[in-house]
């Protein structure tokens, strides 16, 4: 006899409570599936759109070594996008459908990628702060309750750690260089600090999804907990670099055992996620163009697959 929805739901709840993984073959509540599709799709889109800010500097890298490193990093981001689209597909959506939603501006990607990259120091600062924030946010996702997402995150986090180190190494070289290079690093840090704090999402009181996502063990910590962890981790790194973080309220709080810090500009955050950040239009237009330019590749792959099927089945392809 087939199990009732109530029985299936009980098994789902027990699996979550026992900290085991939900797999694609398992029954899951529709809202759990929808939440995962939303989060994984946004994450995948972020990786793909996130290639653009740094990609801007590939042709202008200051040396062959820096160019090789940057090329490899941007290529890794494409790979992360692919693992994540593949994880989303296990939930019954199609990558082509998600891409259509992205370029029609119907699905989000991370706010951070709507800021411009104005100097080569931005490549280092993105590695240090943006990949640093990404790691802080994503290491707990390796323990996410949905198996395919958790497993994709393990590999992604290993690569993100390398990305963070390459950024820090570039900044170390620059702060040990000329005065002009040190100024570039400081200027870039001033621009990227607050947008990096916004990557963790709205404050807990304004985060509609956190409570349920924590109950389902998709998210393991709240947005504010992770933001605090990132600040605590980054301040000593800024001191080692000799860079000032642009927050007059930043100070160690002995009682809390954490750094106190100022409030990001949440109006700016809302504007950026609703489409009016400095580069939203440019990022989407570029992605749309790349998608259109790739149409012939998709068509050729489809024709080839049809030919192979026809050969196997003895039928002639139309
Ligand atoms: N940007 O209720 P919550 C990377 C949206 S790292 C845009 O708190 P949730 C690596 C949120 O989607 C960047 N939108 O939502 C890399 C929701 O909107 P919706 C990507 C944001 O999901 C480095 C609404 O606000 N990382 O790519 C943002 O519980 C360098 C309410 O928010 C991930 O995606 C934002 N910053 O928590 C690549 C990690 N924050 O859908 C290249 C996985 C919030 O209801 C170069 N995602 N929103 O319309 C997560 O951990 C979560 O989804 C959060 C948001 C924490 C981002």
From TrEMBL:
Q: Which GO terms describe its cellular component?
A: cytosol
- Top-level taxonomic group: Bacteria
What Pfam families would the database entry show? PaaA_PaaC (PF05138)
Q: Which GO terms describe its biological process?
A: phenylacetate catabolic process
A single GO molecular function, which one? phenylacetyl-CoA 1,2-epoxidase activity
Q: List, alphabetically, the InterPro entries matched.
A: Aromatic_CoA_ox/epox (IPR052703), Ferritin-like (IPR012347), Ferritin-like_SF (IPR009078), PaaA (IPR011881), PaaA_PaaC (IPR007814)
NCBIfam families, per the entry: PA_CoA_Oxy1
How is this protein named in the record? Phenylacetate-CoA oxygenase subunit PaaA
